[in-house]
């Protein structure tokens, strides 16, 4: 859609319609806008401006006699208008909320699973939207320790702990004759040689060792090292989601079929991980509204997401997912504040 220039009064009318609809999900009329926002013009003038905004794709009229409702384009315009100023704001209520959260996070910093669960639950509780957190990608962390436990004749459980305290369990294939003592020796070898090293670096070194063993030494050792290499590879799947119960009570999701569809989409973690991985590469808060979402199943929603870091290194993403009729100013303030709180906690 082409970009157009709006005069100041038209911008005020558009923002007033968006704010009014966010506050109450009913079509907004010109008389209501005139009275609530103190426009020094008659309601007919406001009505003409709203009609022009409808022609430009910012508003639509559900019924001939009804007021107007914002489109995705209107929400985008509104967010762009308030964004920079909102980043500088933090209400007293949000400040108190974040101070309380930071105290909790500091106590949980050695238990990453609890830390991210607390973050997403608190974010959802504060907004009544879905709170999400994408955990650090394994390859961006380092190995703390690994243990191998014989499960069945040909299966072994690898218990891997990274430097963030995140525990991952993985079942891998092994040759049937391997003993628990051999597995313990293998764990000792890995821990003494690779503790504190990045996972991709470890896998690369194991790959070189496997090639050497195959050519010069023992094919059995090569098999063991190959098993070890597999144990230290993880696809990205750690995504915390809280608040599905909260969004059930929003008027935007009163249609049970719509709610079911959203719940089903949210449960497909691969879609969300793919979306958030792209966001984590940026330093700024990203706001995705409706049709801007590359994932078709999420186009009835809006997403506000921000990377969190450890010092200067981006680790993952926290986000809010809610209706397009979202309280954007409050949501932006909260996501921004929560991301900073999480970054401060992880950087201590």
Summary keywords:
single chain, 348 residues, alpha+beta, Arc Repressor Mutant, subunit A, Beta-Lactamase, Enolase-like, domain 1, three-stranded antiparallel beta sheet, 13 helices, elongated
Summarize the structure.
With 348 residues, this protein is of the alpha+beta class. The chain contains 13 helices and 10 strands.
**Category from helices, strands and their pairing:** alpha+beta
CATH architecture of the largest domain: 2-Layer Sandwich
Measured on Cα atoms, how large is the radius of gyration?
26 Å
* Number of H- or I-type helical stretches: 13
Distance between the termini: 46 Å
Count of discrete domains: 3
Instruction: Calculate the mean pLDDT score and round it.
Output: 85
What's the helical proportion of residues? 40-55%
User: Helix and strand succession?
Assistant: HHHEEHHHEEEEHHHEHHHEEEH
Tell me the number of strands.
10
Uncertain spans, ≥5 residues at pLDDT below 50?
none
Q: What is the CATH T-level topology of the largest domain?
A: Beta-Lactamase
Strand content: 15-25%
Superfamily (CATH H level) name of the largest domain: GAF domain
Strand count, sense and barrel status of the largest sheet are: 5 strands, antiparallel
Strand order of the largest sheet: 7-3-10-9-8
- Report the CATH C-level class of the largest domain: Alpha Beta
Overall form: elongated
Characterization of this structure:
It is a single chain. The chain is an alpha+beta fold.
Strand and helix layout:
Blueprint: H1 8-23, H2 30-37, H3 43-55, E1 59-60, E2 69-70, H4 72-88, H5 92-108, H6 112-127, E3 130-134, E4 143-152, E5 155-162, E6 167-173, H7 180-194, H8 199-216, H9 219-231, E7 239-242, H10 244-247, H11 256-267, H12 269-279, E8 286-289, E9 301-310, E10 313-323, H13 328-347
Helix pairs in contact: 2-3, 4-13, 5-6, 5-13, 6-13, 8-9
